């Protein structure tokens, strides 16, 4: 799919603020993909569509979880997690994107998973470090992204877990699996 068409489809689904964020994620994904030798087109499309379902009605997202047999525990961790896996379903259904790697990068861009692909890591990290993000710890993760993809993703997960703990929020099990998987991958490569 052409970039202009993809952006046009996504823009209809997002607020102006979230569209600007999406452009930042696209820019960051392309930079990371070029740096780490990933498929530029897949990184671009996954980034453009990563928040496709962000503003869908909560009840619609919950129904997609049920209808598509997504993990039901998603419903126990707040609505913020739903847009990623639901988005992967809706992007396939409504935008006609069937590439499994792109859909998987959309699915896991908020939680990660214990065995992340390179593309999943790139979109996960790009969403965290895009230029419009400003919060404690983001600069450290941006710096790490220049040196090592795995270590930057691990630092982003650590920051996310610490933030959730400070907010007394539950941590989705896949996020813990992401932490453990990245730790193991980093250890193996040393």
How does this structure look, described?
It is a single chain. This protein has helices spanning 3-11, 16-36, 40-49, 58-67, 83-95, 100-107, 118-129, 138-147, 149-166, 173-189. It is mainly α. The chain has a domain at 3-134: Orthogonal Bundle (Hypothetical protein af1432), CATH 1.10.3210.10. It is globular and about 45 Å long. Helix content is 67%, strand content 0%. The chain has 10 helices and no strands. The mean pLDDT is 96.
What kind of oligomer do you see? single chain
Helix- and strand-based class?
mainly alpha
User: Which CATH class of the domain at 3-134?
Assistant: Mainly Alpha
Q: Please name the CATH architecture of the domain at 3-134.
A: Orthogonal Bundle
The number of strands is 0
CATH superfamily placement of the domain at 3-134 = Hypothetical protein af1432
Describe the sheet with the most strands: none
- Cα-based radius of gyration, to the nearest Å: 16 Å
Explain briefly what this protein structure is.
With 190 residues, this protein is an all-alpha fold.
Which short descriptors sum up this protein?
single chain, 190 residues, mainly alpha, Hypothetical protein af1432
